[in-house]
């Protein structure tokens, strides 16, 4: 119990932010998941005991014996021991979970993950735990597997010889199989990204979700156990003598000459041994998978965040506050999921979103929510642009014409979004060379004057965006560096005058000065070197095998957190659609141009992404297995919900959208949507 | 093999004589509809374009239902023998034979034949059901993943209807039970009927009232639901009992063609998107020669109290029996009823009226002024057997003596 609580505190409290909401929301979920998996353990144990004593020829004796065994003290001790194992496994589940899967893009990265110290500890502990579980299994099975050392008489037929202690190789075989299964479980856990928490496509009660997954879980455990035991037999056949000899020497045991050694073909062809090994493997995997499944179900259950605080101390737990802060990712996911649900199903809570603050009359809730959703979406837009640039550079193709994505002039209200976005772009595309000279863009207080959302928090947030996103590092290729500023300066030329303009001469100076002379030389030199190294390496097939990036994996990696964006899209579009009849104060109208711009820009970029080479336009087949691979298809879900979101807005607003200020290009696109021709 | 399915007739089983159109579906936002023909090909007719794409696929066999995805330009889900095909049609394309690469195949072992489909009105999920599979599937079409909604007892699902507000789903089973699912947490209320299985059903526009009919009874039942709010998670909120709102037992009418007997079981029933007109196909008695199937139209009102008034009959050419009926989802001037006749003709019958409610744009109704295509005057170009006008189908005026027991529910 103590271990459990400490583990929970570590998980919930030791997170990266001082939010009060995390222990509250997550602590209970973890506790409930662990409790249920421990409570289900006796049932699994009973099933195991009944099946391990299988005797089809004497069914009555078999059943009565099994039931008698259930109450024995050693079974109860085993259940206690295995509860400890389950708790430890659960703690590992909790420590290793991720809502955004990490996808290794090359084989080398995968190997790096396997030999990462964290993973080594994971594997080691799982191997030990596997050994413990199979030890319990041998104790509960009884019979010839129970003890490591058994008394035996020497084979030489000396009648007066004292009985010796001999090694029971069956027991050793069992223990090693447990360790092997534990290690294999850990390895597959890593390779199949089983630490990824997929959110279900429909909401359902926990019991129903568990019941739905249970048949799959049993089937998966049976098949997996079969594979693992087969692999183990092969391994034992080749290397089994090493542990055998080692145990014999350290414990001073003899080998029983009358028994057949197990590391031979005839020894391994023992059906009963195989059945019992397989059964204990199924038992081990099932109890562990149940713990894993329950944690998944509890952690991804939707949580109801209040929109407006009832009491002053609850301010931190409100949806707008959580969305705009930087909580653990799971909390952020839950908040966005809740946003999607409330926007779709709850008129009362939507009303709270559209409401004005009591003294002052500001639409704080809507502002905070829409700002966060838009910044998420424009962040994705930037990432996709960067990825497309990289793909174009890698293919050596002609770059798409500059200015294609120029940002249209906008109304002053959404200028702030614009400036925020362009700042992110600039920062994303900065090379280390220009970085120092550009710092004023972010820090200069003047650059945000006049925008309603100018606050230190915004700057802070932009910094966060820069740091947390892994995409801003590797994309600082000279291509992007040269193109990035140009892409967005049309705004500065046409629209951003006054305070906004002041920051841009710095940028242009940086561009003309540093970039024009130095990088061109460095760039060509670097590219030559790179080509040389590439051709050198490509001749060595083995190295290429490890280093080559798998295109599909890299695309999956770009969209690995797309679930957030899908919810942001659904939440935003449902809210905007509902605002047509429900928004009494017109708070949504002020952000409508910004929302349309962001969605249409993203739509263009996503469209272009699916036209890239190597990008399949159809999702791969997903077999209905226990291991969830939904992160592989997130990009298709994103594409579909983006289109649906746009249609949702255009269908509701109809001709009224013509009054919204958007660029001519976007207007054309909107017209297409209005005519249902997209 | 499936005793509970013995009495079941699929919407259009191939064996049924005189069946010419397997399925019909209006696009929810535009003047476009799809027709599945007897040879399992699907034609898509569009009022704005002369090209009529014909959809054929290796797996497109025994088409039983079709549904256009809402909030989307051109995605059509087709229920086939072994799978659900989802056609992605390019609305701007001029091709008449879209390749089978445009179709997504959604299949799940044990889930066949698929006979009913329903899209969520928000366009995000697709429901598919089969009379022999006890599980109903909720699909995320974009990723081709599905979730099984399982229950025990009652057999499969013969009919699906998603309420226009997206909150509830009617699922009729082959036994004397139907279920109403609540579409947020996916829990269901079980409704046993007395006589037989639920034959058809339709929802009021706000999802607060369900009208349904039962096999073997010639009455329309009504079931009201408490107003949907997101706060009552996991509750369907149906009232205790269903009430009878119309008795359609056989009656004799004086018509222009002489004396006719109309009445009997209801075969299918549709409610127009404004909630002002209800159309039902009344199946006549097969024994009596005078009795023939007919389309009856009712004038309805849902609030403040439910009202159902007889409005008239729609008749086709002599000998033609109505098979499928459907209302245009966004007809601006009132309601437009489409009837598929056994003769292979499809007729559009407009009802012009000013809605009782202030006409306002809602997600269900496209506010885009569609190029006013007057079905009486000019049929949509390209429709094969579109037969409009009084010669083919005319809402017959009500003759005296036809009295329906009119019940208004509390």
Automatic annotation (TrEMBL), chain A:
Membrane topology: Multi-pass membrane protein
Coiled-coil ranges (or none): none
GO MF annotations in UniProt: protein-macromolecule adaptor activity
Transmembrane recorded as keyword: yes
Compartment(s) of residence: Nucleus membrane; Nucleus, Nuclear pore complex
Function (record text): Component of the nuclear pore complex (NPC), which plays a key role in de novo assembly and insertion of NPC in the nuclear envelope. Required for NPC and nuclear envelope assembly, possibly by forming a link between the nuclear envelope membrane and soluble nucleoporins, thereby anchoring the NPC in the membrane.
Assigned protein family: Belongs to the NDC1 family.
Name of the protein in its database record: Nucleoporin NDC1
Species of origin: Cyanistes caeruleus
UniProtKB/TrEMBL annotation, chain B:
Source organism phylogeny: Eukaryota, Metazoa, Chordata, Craniata, Vertebrata
One cellular component (GO) term of this entry: nuclear pore
UniProt xrefs under Pfam families: Beta-prop_Aladin (PF25460)
Domain Aladin seven-bladed propeller: 18-351
Sections of the chain in a coiled coil: none
PANTHER family in the record: ALADIN, ALADIN/ADRACALIN/AAAS
InterPro entries: Aladin, Beta-prop_Aladin, WD40/YVTN_repeat-like_dom_sf, WD40_repeat_dom_sf, WD40_rpt
Organism: Cyanistes caeruleus
Name this polypeptide is given: Aladin WD repeat nucleoporin
One Gene Ontology term from the biological process aspect of the record: nucleocytoplasmic transport
């Amino acid at each position: 119990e103590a271990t459990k609580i400490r583990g929970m505190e570590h998980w919930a409290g030791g997170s990266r932010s001082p939010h009060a909401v995390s222990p509250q929301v997550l602590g209970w979920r973890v506790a409930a998941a662990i409790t249920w998996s421990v409570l289900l353990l006796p049932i699994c144990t009973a099933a195991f005991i009944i099946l391990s004593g299988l005797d089809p020829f004497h069914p009555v004796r078999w059943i009565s014996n099994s039931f008698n065994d259930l109450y024995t003290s050693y079974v109860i001790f085993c259940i206690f021991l295995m509860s400890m194992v389950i708790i430890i496994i659960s703690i590992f589940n909790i420590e290793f979970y991720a809502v955004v899967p990490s996808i290794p893009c090359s084989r080398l990265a995968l190997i790096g993950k396997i030999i990462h110290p964290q993973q080594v500890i994971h594997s080691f502990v799982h191997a030990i735990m596997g050994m413990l579980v199979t030890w319990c299994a041998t104790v509960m099975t009884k019979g010839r597997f129970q003890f490591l050392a058994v008394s035996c008489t020497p084979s030489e037929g000396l009648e007066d010889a004292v009985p010796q202690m001999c090694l029971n190789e069956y027991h050793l075989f069992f223990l090693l199989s447990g360790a092997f299964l534990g290690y294999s479980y850990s390895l597959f856990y890593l390779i199949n990204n089983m630490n990824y928490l997929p959110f279900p496509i429909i909401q359902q009660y926990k019991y129903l979700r568990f019941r739905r997954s249970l048949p799959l879980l049993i089937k998966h455990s049976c098949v997996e156990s079969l594979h693992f035991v087969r692999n183990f037999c092969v391994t034992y056949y080749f290397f089994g003598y090493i542990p055998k000899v080692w145990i014999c020497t350290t414990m001073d045991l003899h080998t029983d000459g009358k028994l057949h050694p197990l590391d031979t073909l005839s020894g391994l062809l023992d059906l009963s041994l195989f059945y019992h090994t397989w059964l204990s493997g199924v038992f081990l995997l099932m109890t562990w998978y149940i713990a894993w499944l329950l944690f998944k179900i509890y952690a991804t259950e939707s949580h109801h965040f209040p929109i407006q605080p009832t009491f002053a101390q609850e301010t931190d737990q409100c949806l707008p506050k959580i969305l705009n802060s930087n909580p653990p990712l799971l909390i952020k996911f839950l908040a966005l999921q809740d946003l999607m649900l409330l926007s779709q199903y709850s008129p009362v809570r939507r009303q709270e979103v559209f409401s004005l603050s009591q003294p002052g009359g500001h639409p704080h809730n809507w502002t905070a929510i829409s700002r966060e959703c838009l910044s998420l979406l424009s962040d994705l837009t930037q990432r996709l642009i960067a990825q497309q640039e990289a793909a174009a550079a890698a293919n050596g193709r002609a770059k798409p014409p500059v200015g294609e994505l120029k940002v249209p002039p906008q109304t002053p209200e959404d200028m702030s979004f614009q400036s925020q976005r362009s700042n992110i772009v600039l920062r994303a595309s900065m090379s280390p060379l220009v970085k120092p000279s550009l710092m004023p863009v972010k820090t200069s207080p003047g650059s945000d004057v006049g925008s309603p959302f100018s606050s230190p928090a915004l700057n802070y947030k932009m910094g966060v965006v820069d740091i947390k996103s892994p995409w801003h590092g590797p994309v600082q290729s000279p291509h992007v560096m040269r193109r990035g500023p140009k892409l967005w300066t049309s705004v500065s030329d046409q629209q951003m005058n006054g305070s906004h303009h002041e920051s841009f001469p710095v940028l242009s100076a940086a561009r003309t000065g540093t970039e024009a002379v130095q990088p061109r030389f460095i760039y060509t030199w670097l590219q030559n070197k790179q080509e040389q190294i590439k051709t050198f390496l490509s001749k060595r097939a083995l190295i290429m095998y490890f280093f080559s990036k798998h295109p599909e994996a890299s695309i999956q990696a770009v969209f690995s957190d797309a679930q957030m964006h899908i919810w942001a899209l659904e939440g935003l579009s449902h809210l905007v659609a509902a605002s047509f009849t429900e928004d009494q104060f017109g708070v949504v109208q002020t952000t409508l141009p910004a929302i349309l711009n962001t969605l249409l820009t993203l739509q263009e970029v996503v469209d272009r992404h699916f036209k890239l080479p190597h990008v399949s336009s159809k999702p791969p087949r997903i077999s209905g297995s226990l291991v969830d691979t939904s992160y592989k298809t997130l990009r298709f879900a994103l594409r579909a919900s983006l289109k649906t979101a746009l249609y949702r807005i255009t269908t509701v607003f109809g001709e009224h959208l013509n009054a919204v200020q958007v660029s001519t290009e976007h207007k054309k696109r909107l017209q297409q949507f209005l005519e249902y021709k997209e | 093999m499936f005793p509970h399915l013995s009495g079941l007739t699929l919407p259009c089983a191939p064996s049924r004589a005189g069946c010419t159109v397997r399925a019909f579906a209006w696009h929810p936002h535009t003047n476009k509809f799809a027709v599945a023909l007897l040879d399992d090909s699907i034609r898509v007719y569009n009022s704005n374009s002369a090209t009529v794409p014909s959809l054929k696929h290796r797996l497109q066999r025994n088409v039983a239902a079709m549904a256009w995805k809402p909030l989307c330009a051109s995605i059509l889900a087709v229920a086939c023998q072994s799978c659900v095909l989802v056609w992605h049609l390019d609305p701007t394309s001029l091709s008449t034979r879209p390749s089978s690469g445009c179709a997504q195949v959604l299949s799940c072992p044990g889930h066949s034949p698929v006979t009913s489909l329903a899209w969520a009105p928000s366009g995000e999920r697709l429901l598919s059901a089969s009379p022999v599979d006890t599980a109903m599937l909720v699909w995320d079409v974009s990723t081709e993943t599905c979730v099984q909604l399982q229950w025990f007892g009652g057999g499969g699902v013969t009919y699906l209807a998603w309420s226009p507000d997206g909150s509830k789903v009617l699922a009729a089973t082959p036994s004397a039970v139907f279920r109403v699912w609540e579409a947020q947490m996916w829990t269901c209320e079980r409704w046993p009927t007395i006589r037989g299985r639920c034959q058809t059903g339709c929802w009021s526009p706000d999802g607060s009232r369900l009208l349904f009919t039962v096999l073997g009874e010639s009455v329309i039942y009504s079931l009201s639901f408490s107003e949907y709010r997101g706060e009552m998670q996991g509750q369907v909120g149906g009232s205790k009992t269903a009430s009878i709102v119309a008795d359609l037992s056989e009656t004799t009418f004086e018509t222009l063609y002489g004396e006719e007997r109309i009445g009997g079981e209801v075969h299918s029933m549709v409610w127009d998107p404004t909630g002002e007109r209800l159309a039902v196909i009344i199946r006549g008695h097969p024994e009596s020669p005078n009795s023939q199937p007919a389309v009856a139209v009712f004038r309805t009102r849902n609030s403040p109290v439910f009202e159902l008034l007889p409005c008239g009959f729609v008749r086709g050419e002599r000998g033609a029996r109505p098979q499928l009926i459907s209302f245009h989802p966004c007809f601006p001037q009132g309601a437009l009823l489409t009837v598929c006749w056994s003769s292979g003709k499809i007729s559009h019958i407009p009802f012009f009226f000013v809605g009782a409610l202030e006409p306002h744009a809602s997600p269900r109704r496209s506010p885009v002024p569609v190029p006013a295509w007057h079905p009486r005057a000019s049929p949509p170009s390209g429709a094969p057997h579109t037969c409009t006008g009084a010669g083919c189908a005319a809402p017959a005026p009500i003759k005296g003596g036809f009295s329906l027991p009119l019940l208004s529910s509390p």
